[in-house]
Design a protein that fits this description.
It is built from 25 helices and 22 strands. The protein is α/β, with parallel strands linked by helices. Helix 19 links the parallel strand 21 and strand 22. The strands form 4 sheets. The protein has a 7-stranded mixed sheet. It folds into 4 domains: 84 residues, no CATH class; 92 residues, Nucleic acid-binding proteins (OB fold (Dihydrolipoamide Acetyltransferase, E2P), Beta Barrel); 157 residues, 3-Layer(aba) Sandwich (Rossmann fold); 157 residues, P-loop containing nucleotide triphosphate hydrolases (Rossmann fold, 3-Layer(aba) Sandwich), CATH 3.40.50.300. The structure holds adenosine-5'-diphosphate and magnesium ion (MG). Magnesium ion (MG) binds next to helix 11.
């Protein structure tokens, strides 16, 4: 049996009760799980904060000093222990609400301690609740000054399984494991990147002898983690390319006619390049799986249409699926005029399509008469069948799950349709490489000529009158205005109240103008009606929630006001801003907030004011929020990273990807002796996904 599958309760110092807790609290079942419970940081036992320098924005800090006094406050279950802790520079309060009696007897007044925890302000005094406390001892020569800090939980702490206890168990495990750790990378790789061995890396990540070794251990483990993710994705890609046939779309007569007679603007170079990339895929005889990234307004829709013409010119049908009804309508209206000129039957299918109309569409799709269908997730229904679906285009991909995508593929039982996924959320390269390592990526990195940079400003609520004055000027110049309110589900009722209040105050402030309102709780028809009024310029102001976030195109709207802007994520702000700047006029985005702003909100607002570059914004967003948040982790599975951080480790990601690529080129089946460690590790990773110890 594999040593690392040994159940944790057999480890000295653990036993059944603690094993149960480690399982339920930290998901640690086996030796393998425990050894991968890497410390989330290390304490440098030679580095301390001066109490006078501590402020509440600091994360965890370490101080050295003495308990000057302590006292029990409160009664019964509300009892707490408060201690005054001092160093030469000042004093702070330590406080415990749990394990009060035990702490009270073990803490010695006057003795020197090292205290570790998160400072906060309470009653205008620095306070650390439930700090880790350890008697101060000299760091001896040759002894490590870096101590691991492990994540743990309140429940574990209450059972004396704090970070220090975990580190004792870990030391036990590493003693046993030392002779059992197999190498998981090839000697070549280890040589080339001067990496620590797996064994050394595991020892050093937990108990490093110095900072250099710790960094080397981190590098090795991150590299390995990312390497195997990339290897897996790249192999899937090769398998897919080798196995899945795709229809060939070589002929382009209608497309040529469209270029020559109906396209009213010149394509940007980026659009041309992307179209070439797609055409090459479609002529290759293999199924296309391509991600098309392009900032808002970069002109993805026309690329989609051109791709659909390639399909229809070769006897195949296409579908274009959008995440919302409004967006589907807009695509339909925009593309219908081209399709009519080209004599192509193009239809629309959404949740609100009437039954009779629906039946007709179903028939025309099945007979092959209808060449292009634009719609929402209504397209996924089983009754929607095609004569020969050859191409699926999915717009604003982040709203759709993988399962939904695969439902579309199944609509052609003979040949899997080509897939083009379009996203306006510019995914940072590092993330795209990891999330879509199995997709090919095209990027439209250029906006159509003549677009003016959107001017973005941040204004406080107190200056609302001035902002309204500016809006009035713009409306007088013939422009239209969006005013957007946040809508976050947990506090829906509150948010609707904000929206309604806002609508009323806008109505009062602009009695001379017509105002539309759109929000998610409206019936689709009503929403559509209001939207159309705004599109037709019957209304000057659109008060809305984020339902207008995605895709809506009203070139005459040149001002975007975002209320409570601090409540929006960065990429959402950028999406919203993308609703303006679509016409020839100078456009504006005004971010409204009150004075109270967190540090992160400030960074978000500053970033918006500083740049219009979607990729830069996405990078900062990734750093602020972490990748899981950005994409919705359900899509990835690959984002379950233990050590690597996509926001910070892009260089290692690139190196590991290049390494994986090279190895697969030289040895696609990983059969050569020098890659033996790698193929063995892949086998053990596969087995691990079915972990028997968790079932019994
Ligand atoms: P997005 O990439 O955000 O989906 P759209 O496809 O909606 O962008 O395009 C935004 C606007 O730019 C549309 O009005 C479209 O007709 C126009 N457009 C697209 N490509 C060009 C181009 N090459 N030159 C001028 N206008 C263009
Ligand atoms: Mg779009």
């Amino acid at each position: 049996m594999n040593f690392f599958h040994t159940k944790i309760e057999f480890l000295k110092g653990v036993g059944p009760q603690r094993a149960g807790l480690l399982q339920t609290e930290l998901n640690i079942f086996t030796y393998g799980d425990l050894i991968q419970h890497y410390p989330f940081r290390h304490l440098d036992r030679t580095q301390f904060y001066q109490i006078a320098d501590i402020h509440e924005d600091l994360p965890y800090i370490q101080v050295k000093g003495r308990i000057r006094s302590k006292e029990l406050l409160g009664e019964g279950r509300k009892q707490r222990l408060s201690a005054v802790f001092t160093d030469a520079s000042g004093e702070l309060e330590l406080v415990w609400f749990k394990g009060v009696k035990w702490m009270n007897t073990s803490l010695k007044t006057g003795a020197e301690y090292i205290v570790f925890g998160k400072p906060t302000i309470f009653n205008s005094r620095i306070n650390i609740a439930h700090p880790e406390v350890e008697e101060a001892t000299e760091v001896k020569q040759g002894q490590s000054y870096l101590h691991p800090v492990y994540s743990t939980t309140e429940k574990l702490k209450n059972h004396r399984l704090d970070s220090k206890a975990i580190s004792r168990i870990m030391a036990e495990l590493l003693k046993l494991a030392a002779t059992n750790i197999p190498e998981t990378l090839s000697p070549d790789l280890i040589d080339q990147y001067k990496m620590l061995s797996k064994r050394e890396a595991l020892l050093q990540i937990h108990f490093p002898i110095n900072t250099d070794k710790l960094n080397a251990a981190k590098f090795r483990l991150k590299f390995e983690e990312l390497f195997y993710v990339q290897l897996k994705l790249l192999r899937q890609k090769t398998i897919r390319k080798a196995d899945l046939a795709g229809q060939i779309f070589k002929n382009v007569p209608t497309l040529t006619e469209f270029y020559n007679n109906h396209l009213t603007f010149d394509l940007t170079n980026a659009q041309k390049r992307v179209i070439k990339e797609i055409y090459k895929d479609l002529c290759a005889g293999k199924q296309m799986n391509r991600l098309l990234q392009g900032d808002v307004g970069s002109g993805k829709t026309i690329v989609a249409f051109i791709t659909m013409l390639m399909a229809s010119d070769n006897g195949a049908q296409s579908c274009l699926m959008a995440p919302t009804e409004i967006l589907a309508d807009q695509h339909y209206v925009g593309l219908k005029q081209f399709a009519d000129k080209l004599n192509i039957n193009l239809g629309k299918l959404t949740g609100s399509t009437k039954q009779s109309e629906r039946r007709k569409i179903h028939e025309q799709l099945q007979s092959g008469e209808m060449k292009i269908i634009v719609g929402t997730h209504a397209l996924l229904e089983d009754v929607v069948q095609f004569q020969n679906l050859g191409l699926c285009i999915i717009d604003e991909q982040h709203r759709f799950g993988v399962a939904q995508r695969s439902k579309l593929w199944q609509k052609n039982p003979r040949v899997i349709p080509h897939v083009l996924v379009m996203t306006a959320t510019p995914i940072p390269r590092t993330l795209a490489m990891t999330l879509y390592g199995d997709l090919d990526v095209s990027v439209i990195d250029e906006l159509p000529a003549g677009r003016k940079e959107i001017v973005t400003v941040h204004r406080f609520d107190a200056h609302r009158l001035r902002v309204f004055g500016f809006l009035r000027e713009q409306i007088k110049l013939g422009r239209q205005v969006y005013i957007v309110y946040p809508l976050i589900e947990e506090s829906e009722t509150m948010d609707y109240k904000d929206l309604m209040d806002g609508y009323e105050s806008v109505k009062r402030a602009f009695p001379e103008y017509q105002i539309s309102m759109v929000h998610g709780k409206m019936k689709p028809q009503d929403k559509d009606f209001e939207m159309q009024r705004f599109v037709k310029h019957e209304t000057q102001i659109m008060v809305a929630t984020t339902v207008i976030e995605v895709g809506v195109n009203v070139p005459n709207a040149s001002v975007m006001v975002i209320e409570s802007a601090e409540r929006f994520g960065l990429s959402q702000l950028h999406q919203l801003r993308g609703r303006v700047g679509r016409g020839a006029e100078q456009s504006y985005c005004i971010l409204m907030t009150n004075y109270k702003l967190s540090k992160e909100s400030k960074i978000r607002l500053e970033t918006m004011v500083r740049t219009n570059n979607g990729f830069e914004i996405a990078d900062i967003d990734l750093k602020l929020r972490g990748p899981g948040d950005l994409m919705g982790t359900q899509q990835s599975g690959v984002l379950d990273l233990l050590v690597a951080d996509l926001a910070k480790d892009s260089k290692i990601l690139q190196e590991s990807r290049a390494a994986a690529q090279l190895i697969l080129e030289q040895d696609p089946t990983l059969a050569q002796p020098q890659n033996q460690n790698i193929s063995r590790h892949i086998q053990s990773l596969k087995k691990n996904t079915l972990n028997w110890s968790r079932i019994s």
